[in-house]
Amino acid sequence: MSWVPSPSTARHLFYGILIGFSLSIASTSVISAYRKRRDHNAVEKASPRPIELRSDEVLDGVTGLIGNTPLVRINSLSNALGVEILGKAEYLNPGGSVKDRVALEMIENAEREGLLHPYTGSRIFEGTSGSTGISIATIARARGYDATIVLPDDVSLEKVKALEVLGADVERVRPASIVDKKQNLAREYALDFTSGKTPAGALVNGNGNGNGHALVDEDEESLSRPRGYFADQFENRCNFAAHFTGTGPEIWRQTNGEVAAFVAGAGTGGTIAGTGQFLKSMADDVLVALADPDGSGLYNKVKHGVMYDHKESEGTRRRHQVDTVVEGIGINRLTKNIELALPVIDDAFRITDAEAVSMARFLVQRDGLFLGSSSAVNLVACVKLVRKLGWNNGEKVVTVLCDSGARHYSKFWNDTYLSKAGIPIDVGIVQDLLTQPFPPMSSITKI
User: Fold this and answer.
1) Model-level pTM?
2) CB contact at 8 A, 175 and 321
3) How far apart are alpha carbons 356 and 303 in whole angstroms?
4) Strands across the sheet with 84-89, in order?
5) E.C. number, please (predicted)?
């Protein structure tokens, strides 16, 4: 007699077949999705993702171009050292340097404090080695101000030409020591300008702490009068703030929070102070290292607590202030921004002119990167830091590519000038740094 399942058994058998079929379909879907995802990831790894352009994304004038610069891998140095040397490409800012961030923050803060009002004939004054002046002149034009820039007479001619094209009034003076009255010439000009334009005769100034002052009544008439504003990048806390709220967070995001070290030079001190403090606030084990050129006193201040360099003795300097072909970094006095940097700086490296020149030439030959003098100093310091610590496991070392070589044709990139100054042009200097054997781990001193 043939077996006929009971209704209950048939029902269970049907449910079992249905469940098995459903599981089969589900597992097939999961496998298919996994394969699609794997293939998609393989494509992403094989070809870099293009820059994403979103609809209705239009920047508001030239100031909208400032910041959010790319972080670029320096292939030659990274491959040679076994780490990731990453450069924040600040030379891609519209004014051509990292100083665009600072200039914008100082001007916007002055506007917030009511110290500057656009299109009133007001003028911004600043003393600079060039880059900050170019950034101020660029933003001043965009925001309805005039600019007067006081700068040393031995800076590269390219910077002077850029300032003149931007319509800034340029005054070139001999580099002055800290005790020289010309140290605050831009401040005096701001006072004189305001005195001649307003009955109260007051300097309009601010330091980024919300306590700038204008000794004129803020009535309707005074708001339309021209004012002189001394930006004072060395002491203005906006310098620090621009990097604490901008550069630092950008680097943290771009590296997914995986920063082993940050390396930067210091002129005013704002970049290393603001960026360094932000990165350490996110991870206190991030190393912050100073890259200091010949003749600057900051290296000794960090290493020995004394603000002095032996090349500062009378009769031994090519310049009054800093004995180096490098422009934009190096100083022999403490500014408010440098004071903010000192607590977070773990180590310092002295970089010679010859090393900087060698690095710049090496990068052009190996990477096609045409960089300025301070960028080259920063990258030499990165190599020295990695060598000192014996890193070779892909650690991420971030630095700042401050400006391009296009501002340095007449000096740093001028072989004749370098020869007369006694500075060798030898790519082998960097090649030797890269090929030195790593020090044994037992001999590495913790910073």
Assistant:
1) 0.80
2) yes
3) 21
4) 71-73, 84-89, 396-401, 261-264, 287-293, 347-351
5) 2.5.1.47
